[in-house]
Amino acid sequence: MTALAVTRATLTRVLRDRTALFFMVLLPVAIIVVIGVTVRGFDQFRVGLVPDPRSGPVAQELAADLAKAPGLRTRSYADAADARTALRRAELDAVILMPAGLDESVRAGRSVTVRVLVEPSGSAGHAAVSSVSAVVADHAGRLQAARFATGQSGGTFDGNLALARGAERASSPVAVRAETVNGQSDYLPLGYSYSTPTMLVLFVFINALAGGAAIVQTRRTGVYARALAAPVPARALVAGETIAYLLLALLQSLLIVGIGALAFDVAWGDPLAAGVLVTVWALVGTGAGVLAGALFRTPEQVHAIGPALGIGLGMLGGCMWPLALVPGWLRTAGHAVPQAWAVDAWTTLLSRDGDLSSVARELTVLTAFAVALLTCASLALRHRLTTSPGA
Amino acid sequence: MTDPPGSPDTVRPVLDCARLARRFGERVAVDDVSLRIAPGETYGLLGPNGAGKTTTIRMVCGLLRPDAGTVRVADRPVSTAAGPAKQLIGFVPQDVALYPDLSVRENLRFFGRLYRLPRRRLDRRVDEVLDLIDLTARAGDRVDSLSGGMRRRLNIGAGLVHSPTLLVLDEPTVGVDPQSRHAILESVNRFGEEGMAVLYTTHYMEEAERLCDRVGIIDRGRLVAEGSPRELVRLVAERDRIRLTAAGGLSGYAEACRRLPRVEGLARGGDHGDVVELVVKDARSLLPDLLDLAHEQGVDIRSVEIDEPDLEAVFLHLTGTALRE
Ligand SMILES: Nc1ncnc2c1ncn2[C@@H]1O[C@H](COP(=O)(O)OP(=O)(O)OP(=O)(O)O)[C@@H](O)[C@H]1O
Ligand SMILES: [Mg+2]
After folding, report:
1. What interhelical angle do A192-221 and A299-316 show, nearest 10?
2. Half-sphere exposure at residue A109, Cβ-oriented, CA atoms within 13 angstroms
3. Which of A173, A260, B79, B166 is 20 to 30 A from B8, alpha carbon to alpha carbon?
């Protein structure tokens, strides 16, 4: 019960501290808004279309297919230079240059290349290319069928093309779904559904590390040393602080979940699975925070290193951008940090309608992280309190 | 004052430390220190910086494991584990140890809760302690808004909430203005009168002399002498000096004085000067005889000065160093 005296003191202190509350609530919400708006751009790639002035029906059909594609938002440019400028200004993710004389080439049986321009920076461009490729491949398949029919059984190319189109509409023997981005990208939650859970992962962890600074500060007030003169074992002090920071992490998570649901329309998925995930993640953060509180010598050290560490791990773990967009080796490396597992679990819950069993693996890994961190943290803090309580 | 404190040799002592020793690496901080404190007794541990006072106190309070020796409070062993003996000890550390961002009352409640005071009793004791340390008016203020002296008082108060049997104070008056210091000393005095045993460290001689029933002098980790301030003073070979100034010749008077019992010698006088200086055993009790004698001989005494040796002199004598560096 004496542990709860410590819990109570710590909660009172933190909830009274305006700076702490800023970092706990306002900052995460502000960043959720910013990232939510930015990542929203990923659901539709902005593509500029530069048609050939002498375009025939085939070219027009391709342009129409591109405009209809769900992952693309097309805009026509009469002048290629204008389109290039828009691309450079990042107003577009890609520019499609319709080949000159597409119709004649196709009818003559020549192969044609559709040129797509992207900026070297920005992964959105390359992702857009695969979307465009899917549409073009679809279109090319139809042309090929029409050309094959014309060669084998006669008839006009245009007639056979119409037949091919009709046949495709009637029965599609092989369904192909266009991948918007590489890998699992079609599972990627977008907008606030991406930014809210990832910022929860990021900020609960960073905030818990900041709690470590408060522990270092308390160590230096001599209160712990003095408390040990009471009939209070060191483990009760450790437990008291751990409970306090766990409660704070849960409170912060609930705030972010609530604001996400109410203000940004985030559907948090299966409530049981989401609840377990929030709790396990709060335990991971608390373990890291208490460990920092035991290891560092001054609060300033924690303030200097904590947020940088939290942001670094967040980047590696896919809190800032989807790990689906990074190279495979980096994705693998990212899974050395708990953040990646938490983000994966949220992705499953939010975009794939996952439940407890579908995130069991992630939860197991996160629980292992939590147990390891909490064990190290309590051993280290207990050691610190009993050997040099005032330092 | 209620009953005078008993001696720890006749009454069951509240604190009983036996042969405590502790070293830090090569440095011996405390070496074979034994001390006992009776209920209601105020014991002063007097020593210069680095003498081992804080180290002794940390072992007494179960904050530091002794290399050798034992500590018992009311017959219960004290260890660094959270044993029941700790419930009886109130510890006031040398440096203020409080939550700076909690209020005065919240701090007192926190420490009360550590000792598992039930709610009602906690409320009552916090009010009593606030009154005792004269901070009732500031109860709702944050600690970091208090003056240094107020913080010191609260630092003491935090050790009192659970009504300890033994109060341990480590230099509670360091860096405190004279007025606060006076208030602190007054309260410590009262604790003793109320039957609390008090262990008090200081390097201020006056405090020890004024407050303590018994004083232990610690130097380089060793307890070099122990006793009531008067007993300690008597340890010194020095005696009181009485210096009498009169108008007129004093040679006859000086001779007469020398023949009185308890006058051990004549330091000065016996000639035609107007000053007589005597070395005596107990100046205060001898003074009436000296004045009577002067009256008989028609000597007109203008002034009397008595120099009693103090703990400063004792300390100098025992350790060869001055107490304050
Ligand atoms: N944790 C420690 N590690 C190493 N040496 C220590 C430690 N604590 C105390 N000492 C040493 O032990 C000796 C006694 O120190 P202590 O703090 O007990 O003295 P003190 O009488 O309380 O002095 P002061 O009047 O300055 O408070 C000193 O030489 C000190 O340097
Ligand atoms: Mg000291």
Report:
1. 160
2. 5
3. B79
Rounded to an integer, what distance in angstroms lies between the CA atom of residue A52 and that of residue B281?
126
Interchain contact A262–B (C-beta under 8 A): no
**pLDDT by residue (tens digit) across B87-106?**
999 999 989 999 999 999 99
Q: Please give the distance, rounded to the nearest whole angstrom, from the Cα atom of residue B48 to the centre of ligand 2.
A: 9
Contacts B89 to A, Cβ<8 Å? 229
Q: Is the pLDDT of residue B2 over 50?
A: no
Burial (CB < 10 A; 0-12, 13-18, 19+), residue A140, is middle
Condensed to tens digits (0 to 9), the pLDDT of residues A270-313 reads 889 899 999 999 999 999 999 999 899 898 888 888 888 998 99
Q: B275 lies in which domain range?
A: 238-308
What is the CATH number assigned to the segment(s) A44-170? 3.40.1710.10
Report the CATH number that the domain containing residue B67 is assigned in CATH: 3.40.50.300
B203 lines ligand 1 (CB under 6 A): yes
Ligand nearest to the CA of B45: 1
Q: Which chain A residues are closer than 8 Å to B84 by Cβ?
A: 231
Question: Where is pLDDT greater, at A262 or B66?
Answer: B66
Q: Does B164 touch chain A (CB under 8 A)?
A: no
